[in-house]
Design brief:
- Helix 1 (16-27) runs parallel beside helix 2 (47-53) and helix 9 runs antiparallel to helix 13 (323-332).
- The protein is 44% helix and 18% strand.
- It is of the alpha/beta class.
- The protein has a domain at 223-332.
- The strands form two sheets. Strands 1, 2, 3, 4, 5, 6, 7, 10, 11 and 12 form a ten-stranded mixed β-sheet that branches. Strands 8-9 form a two-stranded antiparallel ribbon.
- The protein starts with 5 loop residues before the first strand and ends in a 5-residue tail after the last helix.
- The chain contains 13 helices and twelve strands.
């Protein structure tokens, strides 16, 4: 069987040092990479020039247009059967791409992701894959937990973080690319929900390992980061929840969204979080305009949300509850029914 032809798309915004480290890692890949596309969002530290010196195709956006638009521009340049999306602050192991590409050869596997560990502490999980609760907020499964057998089982998944994942190019033709209205943050959760609703699943391969610095451009609790996450959490509800689920899960939604604002308050970002929620509510109708126009059953989404919530609760029980999830399950009755 011939190998899948793979291109790598890397969105960049400054941090030239991390980009160079990633390109050096990719140069050591045990799997052939046909093309590397670096999409620069207005870096001012020589990052695009460094990429060109190492043979990458560089697309200059001219300003920070957000993750979604940058990645979409990169995808449009690729003519391969598979596309790896890799953040510039990721350090993949040499065999990371090879393991994912072999898994992607299966006809029923549309995307693949591996175990992403913290670059600062290789004993801790940065994120395995994503799960979404009924309240519309997502958890990067395992984030900040010590690595353990809990995160070492290969399994079918519906949601992969675009931080570091491999996709069949055909998937973007079927479902479209990332929603540029979301700009940055949760655009990969939105894409994954579209995959789930269409019944197109992926695979989690814990043996495919990469390391992630995390929030290298702005910082995890930067006001712009908080504002966009808070807004996009509401926009996901508008896009994906039919009216009956909005009513059925109303209390879970209120709890999940409200608790996230309280978490932001603990980090001194209350106003950014509140502004984000208000912005999402103002845009709710616009995001909902094209929602549920196709005649698809809502049962699939309901089952996926319930399954995701049960898994979040189970893993939290096994590895120790975050305060956010402890309060969420306490206030919503303890899990999905």
């Amino acid at each position: 069987m011939s190998k899948l032809r793979v291109a790598v798309v890397i969105p960049v915004y400054n941090r030239r040092d991390l980009l160079i480290r990633l390109l050096d890692r990719l140069a050591a890949s045990t799997y052939p990479i046909e093309q590397i596309v670096v999409v620069d969002n207005g870096s001012q530290d020589g990052a695009p020039e460094a990429a060109e010196q190492r043979g990458a195709l560089v697309i200059r956006m001219g300003s920070n247009t957000g993750f979604a638009r940058a990645v979409n521009q990169g995808i449009a340049e690729c003519r391969t059967e598979a596309i790896a999306l890799v953040n510039s602050d990721v350090e993949p192991e040499p065999d990371w791409l090879e393991k994912l590409a072999i898994a992607l050869e299966a006809p029923d596997v549309w995307f693949a992701t591996g175990k992403i560990l913290s670059a600062q502490d290789h004993a801790r999980i940065d994120g395995a894959y994503d799960r979404v609760c009924r309240g519309g907020t997502a958890w990067r499964v395992g984030h900040a937990r010590l690595d353990s057998p809990v995160f070492s089982t290969r399994q079918t998944i519906w949601s992969a973080s675009a931080t570091c994942a491999l996709y069949k190019t055909e998937l973007f033709r079927l479902l479209g690319t990332f929603d540029e209205r979301l700009e940055s943050y949760l655009e990969d959760v939105d894409f994954s929900l579209r995959c789930a609703r269409a019944g197109l699943s992926g695979i989690y391969l814990p043996e495919a390992v990469a390391y992630h610095v995390g929030s290298a451009s702005l910082g995890r609790w930067h006001p712009q980061t908080v504002w966009r996450i808070a807004r996009n959490q509401v926009c996901l509800l508008a896009k994906h929840y039919p009216s009956r689920l909005l009513i059925r899960y109303f209390w879970s939604i209120v709890v999940a969204q409200g608790l996230w604002v309280l978490v932001a308050c603990r980090h001194g970002r209350s106003w950014a979080a509140i502004r984000g929620k208000l912005s999402g509510l103002r845009q709710f109708r616009r995001f909902r305009a094209l929602h549920w126009t196709q005649k698809e059953p809502e049962d699939r989404l309901r089952d996926i949300l319930s399954q995701g919530e049960r898994e979040i609760r189970l893993i939290q029980q096994k590895t120790g509850f975050d305060l956010y999830w402890r309060m969420y399950f306490l206030l919503t009755g303890g899990g999905a029914n």
